[in-house]
Amino acid sequence: MLEVNDLHVSVGDREILKGFTLKVAAGEVAAIMGPNGTGKSTLSYVIAGREGYTITRGEILLNGVNLLDLAPHMRAANGVFLAFQYPVEIPGVACMQFLKAAMNAQRRSRGDEEINTPEFMKRVREESEKLKISQEMLRRPLNSGFSGGEKKRMEILQMALLQPKLSILDETDSGLDIDALKTVSEGVNSLRNPARGFLIITHYQRLLDYIKPDTVHVMAQGRIQKSGGAELALELEKHGYQNYVSNEAA
Amino acid sequence: MAALQETVTHVASLDAKAYKYGFTTNIESEKAPKGLNEDIVRFISAKKNEPDWLTQWRLAAYQRWLTMSEPNWARVHYPKIDYQDLYYYSAPKSTPGPKTIDDVDPELLRTYEKLGIPLREQEILAGVQTRKVAVDAVFDSVSVATTFKEELAKAGVIFCPISEAVHTHPELVQKYLGSVVPVTDNYFATLNSAVFSDGSFVYIPKGVRCPMELSTYFRINEQNTGQFERTLIIADCDSYVSYLEGCTAPKRDENQLHAAVVELVALDNAQIKYSTVQNWYPGDSDGRGGIYNFVTKRGDCRGDNSHISWTQVETGSAITWKYPSCILRGNNSQGEFYSIAVSNGHQQVDSGTKMIHLGKNTKSRIVSKGISAGKSQNTYRGLVSAHRKAVGSRNFTQCDSLLIGQSCSAHTIPYIEAKNNHLQFEHEATTSKISDEQLFYAMQRGLSAEDATALIVNGFVREVLQQLPMEFAVEAQKLISISLEGSVG
Amino acid sequence: MRLNPSENILPFEINYAQASAHEMSRERKEAWARYSNLGLPNHRLESWRYTDFRAACLKSFHPADKAIDNIELVREHESYRLVLLNGVLRHDLSDINLMPDGVNVDNIYENQSNLKENISFNTSNFSNLIKDTIVDLNTALASDGFIIKITEGVELTKPIEILNVITKQCSVFTRIFVDLSENSRINLIETLKNNSLHGAQVNHVLYAKLAPNSGLDLFSYLSGSGQSCTGILTLLAELERGASINSNVLFNLNGFFRRQVFAKLKEEHANITLNGVVLAKTKDHIDNTIAVEHCAPNTMSNEVFRYILNNKSVGVFQGKIIVQPAAQKSDGFMQSKAILLSDLAAMNSKPELEIFADDVKCSHGSTCGEIDKEQLFYLMSRGLDEQEAKSLLIEAFAFEAFSAFKDDKMSNFTKNILADWLFIKRNLS
Q: Is the whole model's pTM more than 0.90, yes or no?
């Protein structure tokens, strides 16, 4: 489903991704782990289409569509969802209003009919209950004054409602206590299905105790250094990233 | 971000073609000759069969006006106005004075229909409109129709053209006219005092909660016509009224002058909510034409515990010069000012408020949201002052500006004057653009750059929109979208 | 506006008459001509609406006579000190010959009996910000001053101190030009001490020109045991690429005073911090007026002011941040807060933003009022008496504006002054 081929990305004069290649199959949960500053967040932003990055080489295909040709909202309409490491506050725009605007925008882009209000309300209610998001919170402006945990739960709620094909979770575990981590993980697990791919970007093994990955990739210095199964994450937990970083340096 | 840039370019290229109220109406009108002199003032007064005191009042204003000079402190620039090249009186000829809605020229009614004004009670009663709103429609200089008069009369509410009130309730008019905005107040107010042609008059008797929202729609139709309406609202003790004002004008290449005066008086425990959606023609993309909106609006919280609240959504006019203010005279009185000012193209806005704390324990709140796009200039100018005796006064001011594009500007000029120590004044102001992060976040969720911008702008002004009555809020939201067309879907 | 002939004669006419008995520079004559055309600024000028300087100077004082007064000055700071007594350099009290390498101090009027020369300030760069004649008046009448030149790369650890002392009724016109070369950095203390018991008038201008990556830490202290000092302290600053100014001002004098700052952030990454505390009592009128112009991208400005107003004092804060179209990605922050301790004190503030670029972050905040009653109650419930609690709150309030001090000595110095002020206030009330 997702194919990233020989991706080279720079910010200013500095090359961050240096020939990054990765495949994620439908139904697969792939984890990308690596030390800070190796370009993990850059990868997620580039897939989602954020400005400020220069792509000098490579391609990103989602089910055969080259995402690099599309504006961010068209990538979203094609099924890309990024759960932000730092969800953005939008003052004055209530969560409900935002959710509906986003759902309908994607539907319109795909040529589908807009969702009707009762149906929308019902879906929001169902999903928010699972994530322990209160109605009061939904009336508040998007992410404004939310705690770290609330922001992350709101990201997962959006993911559940938008039903993306590819979900990228960028350091979703950061800033979460153990209960919030469980809630968020359950939310993600319930969305796993054979048609959907996940890219989980994390620094720690912790999140992977709750969301079991099918594949684990170690990323350092702008590309994948090693790939393996879930056991690779445990090995990393034991030995750290030292080997991969020094390999590269040597 | 490229998408933002696109939006910005689109906004910059925006033309006032989008102005959907730019049609004219073909109605024969009766005009006074061009220019201004004592005879014209007498002519206007005579046209309305005014009592002598009012004629004299106008003449005194005219004499005073001759000695004054146009204010130049505002951050607006325009070629010198030739006051002798304007018509000061224009009335639709067909109806000397409508008695009922059926007397109104059908062409005029169609105009109002195009404007979407619920002039016809039938429509409202038939449920086309969900809420009852009594409307006084002012076309060029004269009030053409007032709806729901009977029902209002049952409650004792007087809602009629001010020219009519002069005859039917002279004691009220004489007592309150010019008592909030004195004849000598400022250049444009003095001019208005001399030549005002019509406007609305409202009196809410003691203890009455006005049973419906009152509304005036102003429209300038004639060419080279100044519109000088005068509104006077008196809320007697323990009463309440919510009043809405809307304005439009046809597209014209020349600039048109609009110099209105609005006076509000709130007696003990009375509350007045005054909302404006101002959508005068803003001029074309080269800055040609458009209304000069030089308006004096002031509310006097004369009684204890009185409360006056101004809400304005300003999207139109080539130039806006307007400072709806509150004089907080009564003890425990409250003043509020909620404002959204959108400027695009070559529009110039210099608007804000004055909160003058005179009584004890008076409170005021100012929330101003300015949005500048295109090549426009948007200035907030405000005064908060507390008299030595105004102990216990409180003010909170929040003034935010949003800039869209690189050719516009936003200015904030607050004056804060505290003359006693038992008070708390707080003022905050920010200037920002829509952040790339916000835009990217919304786009990642599937919104196009335009929709994302609209959504964020909407959030930015939300606090003010919430102050408007429901149907007005919807209209205002649409207007803001149209005014920022290109960035808004 | 031209002075009406029937009004008083032009203030400081006598000073000019005395000066022009000697040969004068063209600059002085032209400056005087501009001044005599417009007169002193008054409340009808927008930027003087709260501080009517013309009304405050109805009677102008003469320059001090040249008699050598015996005076003893305590060294308050470990510094290279330059002393101006009643407007004239006192060699015997100054370290003018003890300056370290890389610091060049010229006293323009040394050994000159006339006013032929003048420190040339090119104030025309500021013509879009300055709309009055205060600096012109200073140009015309400056009786003494210095040019301080710092060589490239020189960083001084010991501050240079300019001590302006007034001991008798007179008018004082002084000016300093600080020229910082690339990568140089100094600490400058500017002290005004008014000990005249019969009033004084001061017009002092400091012009700081900062070459790329240079830095100026400035502490201006206005004090003295004298009475009713009427005056203006002007700071003109031009900052090139990466240059920075960190300025702190502390007002603790009796009188009618304005400090005005006109700063231009001319090139990228220039930044300025302007902080200040006003301690005002009796009938003091203290005004801080600031205009910072961001001319280039990525420039920063920061202003934090605190006013503590007692008795019948009046505080004025006027701050203006201007962001020119070229100055994208600039940050401007401005905050003024006032505590009014008496029924009769008053505060006027006018924090302005003038923004012509869209990608900027600018904000200002302004509050005024009495001491927070809840905080006061909280402290008293913990056992502090009312005066103690108030002092503590005022101290904390003022310190917010002192937080930018880089030099601990200066920071402690200001804290002690504040403590003294509060102590005196407490014992009087």
A: no
